[in-house]
Write a structure and sequence with these properties.
Layout (H helix, E strand, L loop, with lengths): L4 H10 L2 H15 L8 H6 L9 E7 L4 H12 L3 H9 L3 E7 L1 H13 L3 E4 L1
Antiparallel strand pairs: 1-2, 1-3
Helix pairs in contact: 4-5
Amino acid sequence: MAFDKDAIIASLKEASISDLNDLVKAIEEEFDVSAAAPVAVAAAGADGGAAKDSYDVELTESGDQKVKAIKAVREITGLGLKDAKGLVDNVPSVIKEGVSEDEANELKAKLEEVGGVVTLK
């Protein structure tokens, strides 16, 4: 028996909601699976009280010293002038992702030194 996905999709488009519901139940029973959304994501979010081990450094406002902010972003990220300017001009921008708390605080201090407003996420 050849598998014709186009024919299956066409059949699904024409099916009623109750037919599709019956199909889902039959597939769940036949293959011993569940169509329910995984709950692990919600459980992971509930553990918000634990200490974070990585932070994202986000520039939320560039301040009035844009040239110095662009230089700081270039130094931090290693990006070229155009890319660094794009991050500073299009705030809020994530400057660096997944850094340690110490590094995040250092980067925050550098950007705040040139007038930027930084959020650690």
